[in-house]
Automatic annotation (TrEMBL):
This is Leucine-binding protein domain-containing protein. Residues 3-290 form the Leucine-binding protein domain. SUPFAM superfamilies: Periplasmic binding protein-like I. It comes from Sulfitobacter alexandrii. CDD domains: PBP1_NHase. Gene3D superfamilies: 3.40.50.2300. Belongs to the leucine-binding protein family. Coiled coil: none annotated. Signal peptide: none annotated. InterPro entries: Leu-bd (IPR028081), Peripla_BP_I (IPR028082).
C-alpha cells in the first residue's frame, strides 16, 4: 500500500472485494463468511510484515493469506507462515516456488517474458538490449532468462543495471541506457519506479532509438507515465483490462457493478487478487487439507473463477499470454503469444 508498488493498491483491494462479495453470496468459504483484512506488505511498510502476520496467525485472527506483493516479501513470509494456514501468492513471479502450503498462481518469465522478447526481436531486430530493474529476485531471475535467450539468438547485451526501490531520480539510469546504444530495453522496474523511468525515457525522445518491453507495466502505470512518453512501449501479461474475452467481460460486469464506473483501473495485478480469492476457495473445497503437504510444483487441478482466459497445455490449464502495445493511455494491438 506504500512505496513504488503502492500505485497498485486501489485496484488490488477493489478486485479482492469483488471476489469476497461473490463468495459471500454463496456459502462463503467452507460455510464461513469471508472477511478481508488488508495488510500493507510493502518492503517500505512501517511494521515488519513477518511480525504482523505471525501475530495474526497466533491469535487465530486470519485463516488464509491471499498475497499480492513482491517476491522478496513472499520469501520472508514463507518462513513465518510454515503451513499453518494456506498461502496463495497471486502476481507474476520468477517461478520455482516449492514451499509446502504456498501456491503461486501467476505467470513465470518462461511463460511470459521469453515469447514476448522473441516476438519483439523478430519484429524490430534490435542488435542489442539493455536490462534495467529493481534489485531483488524477480528482475534478476527474469534477466538471467533474457540473457540466455539473447545469447542463443546472437544478440548483444548492451548493459545490465539494478537499483533500489524508490530511487528518487532515474536520470543516471536513463543516461546509462542512452550511452549504451541499446536498441531495445527490458524494463523490470516496479510501479512508480517504472513510471519515473519511462517518463524520462520518453521526454528525451529515446523511443526513436530503442523499443521498450515490460512484464509489469499495467493500466495504472500506463496512465501515470503520460501519453507522450510511451511510444514503442510494449507490455506482456496474462491479463489486460481491455481484452475482449468472455472471462474478462464477466469480470468487468461484476467489478463495475460493485464499484461503479469510477472504480480503480482494472489491471493484471488487481485481477490476480480476485483470482487468488477464488483459487483459495476452490483449493479448500476440492482438496481439503491436502494443501499442507502440497505446493505450486504439484500443479493441483483447481477449477476456479478468473478474469483470465485459460488454454490447456497437456493435462494442465495455463492462462493465455498477450503482448500489447501502449497506445496513448491504453493498451491495444493485443497478440496472443
Amino acid at each position: 500500500m506504500c512505496g513504488p508498488a503502492g500505485i497498485w493498491a486501489p485496484s488490488c483491494i477493489s478486485s479482492a472485494q469483488v471476489a469476497a462479495a461473490e463468495l459471500n453470496r454463496g456459502d462463503g468459504i467452507g460455510g464461513r463468511r469471508v472477511q478481508l483484512i488488508m495488510i500493507d506488505a510493502a518492503v517500505e511498510a512501517d511494521e515488519p510484515i513477518e511480525e504482523t502476520v505471525n501475530d495474526l496467525i497466533e491469535l487465530n485472527a486470519i485463516d488464509a493469506i491471499v498475497g499480492m506483493h513482491l517476491s522478496a516479501v513472499r520469501q520472508r513470509l514463507s518462513k513465518v507462515v510454515r503451513q499453518r494456514i494456506p498461502y496463495i501468492y497471486t502476481p507474476l513471479y520468477e517461478g520455482g516456488e516449492t514451499t509446502p502450503g504456498l501456491f503461486a498462481i501467476g505467470e513465470t518469465p518462461k511463460e511470459q517474458l521469453a515469447p514476448a522478447l522473441l516476438a519483439l526481436q523478430a519484429r524490430y531486430r534490435p542488435r542489442s538490449w539493455a536490462l534495467v530493474g529493481n534489485d531483488y529476485v524477480w528482475p534478476r531471475s527474469s534477466h538471467s532468462l533474457a540473457k540466455s535467450i539473447l545469447k542463443a539468438s546472437g544478440v548483444d547485451l548492451a548493459m545490465e543495471r539494478y537499483v533500489p526501490f524508490g530511487l528518487p531520480n532515474m536520470s543516471d539510469m536513463v543516461d546509462r541506457v542512452e550511452a549504451s546504444g541499446a536498441e531495445a530495453v527490458l524494463v523490470s522496474l516496479v510501479g512508480q519506479d517504472a513510471v519515473n523511468f519511462n517518463r524520462q525515457f520518453g521526454r528525451r525522445g529515446l523511443h526513436r532509438k530503442a523499443v521498450r518491453l515490460s512484464c509489469a507495466l499495467e493500466e495504472n502505470g500506463l496512465m501515470a507515465c503520460g501519453r507522450g512518453n510511451l511510444e514503442r512501449m510494449f507490455s506482456v501479461s496474462s491479463y489486460f483490462g481491455s481484452i475482449a474475452t468472455e472471462a474478462n467481460a464477466c469480470f468487468k460486469e461484476r467489478y463495475y457493478g460493485l464499484h461503479g464506473d469510477a472504480a480503480p483501473a482494472l489491471n493484471a495485478i488487481g485481477q490476480s487478487t480476485y483470482e487468488g480469492m477464488h483459487y483459495l476457495s476452490a483449493l479448500l473445497r476440492d482438496h481439503g487439507t491436502v494443501w499442507r503437504q502440497r505446493s505450486s510444483r504439484d500443479m493441483l487441478p483447481v477449477i476456479h473463477a478468473s478474469g483470465r482466459s485459460y488454454v490447456r497445455d497437456g493435462g494442465l490449464k495455463r492462462p493465455d499470454i498477450y503482448l500489447a502495445r501502449a497506445d496513448g493511455i491504453a493498451f491495444s494491438d493485443f497478440k496472443v503469444l
